[in-house]
Model the fold of this input.
Amino acid sequence: MERTARVNGAALAGMMMVAMVAAPSVGEANDAVTLEKAAYGPYGAQSLVVANSAGSWRQLMAELEAAGALAITPAPEPPTDVDWSHEVVVLVAAGPTGYDVEVEVTRLSNGRTKVEPKYTRLGNDGGESLPYHLVKLPKTAYLADVVAIGNDVATLLPMVGDMPLPAGPTTWGQLKAAYR
Done:
């Protein structure tokens, strides 16, 4: 019986190692820093905005306004808590869909990063809600300026690309992944 317990324990440890190695993502801390998140905002349609500068933000907001995708005008000013030389902002607005939205950033096992919205059904079927989530992330080439409205949002998400390593201590795995 003691031998069986050791074998079963070894088999369990082996299965756990396989599960950890085969996991599709490493799921490290979300690199997104929330700037704004609300159940009711000025974005009257499902929207995606990625802006790399205050000027880009103004231009992309003007495009949303011209397309009738803003419920409140004038368009919001650029966020102030952003170091535009090192950071980019990502806005995902759910519009009147009956869903709340949250921007999630996941580090994948291949060292790349996935930015995607997580939608959660609202208990009141949305009512008058216009939920949105605005985050800032480290600036990277795959997060170029973009605006999308309505069904076009789904064609651009999720966004997957390389993101700089986080500041502070770096694990051997993160370093290897950065050079693959």
Observations:
- Residues 1-29 have pLDDT under 50 and may be disordered.
